[in-house]
Amino acid sequence: MRIRHKPWAKDMIAQHPEIIIPAPEENKGRWRNLFGKEAPLEIEIGTGKGQFITAMAERHPDRLFIGIEREESVIVSALKKLLERPLANARLLYVNAKDLTDYFAEGEVDAIYLNFSDPWPKKRHEKRRLTYHTFLENYKKVLKPGGRIELRTDNQGFFEYSIASMSRFGMVIDKVSLDWHASADFDGITTEYEDKFSEKGQKIYRLEASFR
Length: 212
Ligand code: SAM
Prior knowledge:
Blueprint lengths: L8 H6 L16 H5 L5 E5 L5 H9 L4 E5 L3 H13 L5 E4 L6 H4 L5 E7 L17 H10 E11 L2 H13 L2 E7 L14 H8 L5 E7 L1
């Protein structure tokens, strides 16, 4: 993603602690208290400009959503969406997902979404891929037993890599679609990247996986 520097982003993030939660490690194991609701907790890693997380939170008021994004110039776009359309069941974290276990307790999360994660095609960058085994280890820790990972991408190489990496890790791939928008299960909720690629005619790959 090309990231445009926004000098005002830092201040805007600091001005909205009600949406971009400061010191998120203090809520580890207590996220449902912050929302004031006992409900399934779902997180999106690399939430980008926030279209998916806001649409999901609006569609599913009975679930809790947290979008995680490490780029301040990007997360402010998600913040703006939530300021325009306040949603009691959506929050954002401005952190790096490699430290996920600092922010979520064991078994605290019901589902993890990986949407159009950077594919990092060069072998020497494999460790940065969000389905590299070090990330999978953390997902396993924070997900409740039976919790699921949902991944979608336009990138065939990253999709194949993710299936192989998850399988090597002992995960079960429960569902695979090679053309998600043509699937009977497609709910119409998309990300910014997804719109960009599907408008160009590219098919969207999607899978659901779980730890056993
Ligand atoms: N999910 C959005 C979409 O589909 O439109 C954005 C996709 S963009 C290609 C990937 C995003 O993941 C970027 O905004 C990037 O900053 C974020 N990202 C990548 N690695 C991350 C990490 N380790 N922790 C948090 N965010 C990350």
